[in-house]
Protein: Glycoside hydrolase family 16 protein
Organism: Hebeloma cylindrosporum
Amino acid sequence: MAFGGILAPRADNGVSRHVVYCKPGKQVTFGSGSGGGNPSNGNSTLSSTLGSASRTSGRPTSTSASSNPTSTIPASSPWKLVESHEGGNFFDGWDFFTSADPTEGIVDYLDQNSARSNGLLEINGNGNAVMRVETTSVVPGNRKSVRITTQSQFYGALFIMDSVHMPTGCGIWPAFWTNGPNWPLGGEIDIVEGVNDYTNNQATVHTDIGCTLASSSSNTLAISGKVIGGTNCAALTTGNQGCGIRAATSNSFGAAFNANNGGVYAMKWDSTGVAVYFFPRGTEPADIAAGVPQPDTWGAAQARWPAASCDPFKFFNNHHAIFDTTLCGQWAGAVWSSSGIPGQEQSCAQKTGFSTCEAFVRANGAAMNEAYWEVKSVTIYQLR
């Protein structure tokens, strides 16, 4: 995860960690696609393209326990559906994390039955999965929350997450990411992340030594976002900073995302590298809705870490997908008195009148009313 140049590891029982910066078919290598340009969706096609990544790799495996989206629905896709979470069965295939928050947030994560009985977990009337934070008026310590992890793990995949609402507000720190074993050796890909009133998503990778961005230029990387940290993605030699890329669009995170009825995030991990795409509601490619995704037609990504300087099957392996919402902690708490990030023109300390994140969160249950995920679906594909 990423925040203002400081990162903090998020571990699952000391194995998987999440860090903050501030988660036989072959895909055509980037540069040969044909996406058009439409800056409003955060994936605009840029004038300069990368050199092709020529690395070949074995077909990704799984283990189970466009900027101007094409309007023509293709008959097939090089990606096959291997896992789907939606509707009444959304929570099947997830484990509920119940250990102490690795990022020192003031939350207690609940098991599935406890989360349901406390009103934090449901499938709502629209058939969407909802994961909330406790809204009790005043609490003496931690607030209850939810963190879930896929039981399946993946080695190369296309993750597509359709959400209509994400947690937002002072003291709130949501994330959707993927994580490998023995952090940072297995790598971490933060797909959706931010804190407090931020409006622009930050996608970040954290890896072992050797993964880099070849450039900090958005044009060179052919991305719509902006590199906001360094180009060295190694967590242990950058103070856990990794390589963070901030979205250019203000409806990619937080309140503006919610006001637009959300949108679709996609993370592609294949032999060309790792890339994150975002499509605001109403701009989703028809191929995604039809279940035949064609990432090569989506245009430039919001964020990208090309294979040429970061081998996607060396620095990332055996990933689980994770949702959580924590409060304060090593990012939201650390930047409580800071401003100047898109959406945070006024610091939370100034806005709330509270000198610390923890004091505000404990005393203001009503401020947690927007601290919930509402997710239509998570679908996971792998190359045929």
About this structure: The two ends are 31 Å apart (CA to CA). The longest strand covers residues 372-383. The chain is about 10% helix and 30% strand.
